[in-house]
Amino acid sequence: MKLIPQTSPYLRKPVSVARMMLDVLIALLPVTIFAIIQNGWSGIYVILLSLSIMILTELIAHLLIKWPKGLKFKEIFTKEGLAKVKALYTINNFLAPAISGLIFSLILPAGVSPYVVITGALFGMLIGKMVFGGLGNNIFNPAAVGRIFVAICFGSKLNEAYPTQTTYDVAAGATPLGLVKGDIGNISGYSVLDTFLGNVPGSMGEVCIICILVGGLYLFIRRSADIRSFLGYFLSFAILSFVASMTYVLKFDSGNMFEIWAYQLFSGGMMFAAVFMITDPVTSPTSKFGRILFGAIAGSITILIRISGAYPEGAAFSILIANLTAPCIDYLMKKSPNKYTWKQMLGLCLALIVMGVIVSASVAGGWF
Fold it and tell me: 200-254, pLDDT tens digit by residue?
């Protein structure tokens, strides 16, 4: 038997990596088209710039990492040298950065300064991916790395690009996502239906829930994304945000609990992250229960950051933190990677109960 070494992601079904990545690009089309129609040129140039920088960065870095031994630079202009260089670059080396570039652009506001897009795309691709060896070796989501980097370094520039209205999951000030902290008035301008139809301000790809769900449905039907990661993320967030909303109403005797809960679920970047980012097969665990746990960790951190953190980008931060746990989860699950046990489920339920207590205490303003 001949063993063929390959890099991740590892597939357990007869589906090529290229087909999976192409499916992700297709699933992103509804969100992308909506962003272009809604924002016009101010959205188009952000998308094109992000795509170009990430694809070009991966191309150059990949060729430098995989450069054929003994091949001199001037020899690439010969027929033999060009053939050697072309052999190093596959369709996967184009599709992967295209996905990262498109996702990165969609979690930015339309009209943001070009140098912010360029810097974030470069940092996300180089530091979030290529320093680990490139395709299949990175432990962090490149788009999330780039988004957090520009949020920290260029926060004021990002805020300037958003509409003057209250923004969702992006501004440093009071937002509808801060409503469990007591700012109920901020949600009066928008209905829950507005969040489904995209009639709210925010990052380009995060505002239209219908488009996100259409793309997610396509991915799950095609089995190009693991629904376990999605369910772990979404359900943990839904449960804990319900606890937070209920605590707020009981504590302050103000607001509609289900309205507050609905805004937590359908505003900001949580749904976009649940469908297109947490399901990334490279930065996720490989075991079945491991992916549920991975999603639950990210969902729990997202709600904690939203209600208690200094930065409102809870989704992107939580994914990077969860990425750190993926190797540990794989190590713990290595003896039974494809099994579910009652102990695993009981442990997850107990962990969510503990997190619910922490969330409730945070919203209430203390333990007593």
Answer: 778 898 888 999 999 999 999 999 888 999 999 999 999 999 998 888 888 777 6
Task: List the Cα angle 185/242/108 in 5-degree steps.
Answer: 65
Cβ–Cβ contacts within 10 Å for residue 214, how many? 17
Torsion angle, CA of 30/35/37/41, rounded to 10 degrees? -140
**Sign of the CA dihedral 2, 328, 310, 263?**
positive
Separation between Cα atoms, residue 167 and residue 186, nearest integer Å: 10
How far apart (Å, rounded) are the C-alpha atoms in residues 41 and 39?
7
Q: Assign 157 to helix, strand or coil.
A: helix
C-alpha span between 91 and 76 (Å, rounded)? 20
Of the candidate ranges 131-135, 171-175, 226-230, 245-249, the one whose mean pLDDT is the lowest: 171-175
Q: Of the ranges 28-42, 81-95, 199-213, which one carries the lowest mean pLDDT score?
A: 81-95
DSSP 250-266: HHH--S-HHHHHHHHHH
Amino acid letter, residue 116: V
The two tokens of residue 54 are 């990430």
259 vs 245: CA distance, rounded Å: 9
Q: Report the alpha-carbon distance of residue 232 to residue 300 in Å, rounded.
A: 10
Side-chain-side CA neighbours of residue 109 (13 Å): 26
Question: Alpha-carbon distance 203 to 170, whole Å?
Answer: 8
Strands (E), 90-131: none
* Average of per-residue pLDDT across 35-59: 94
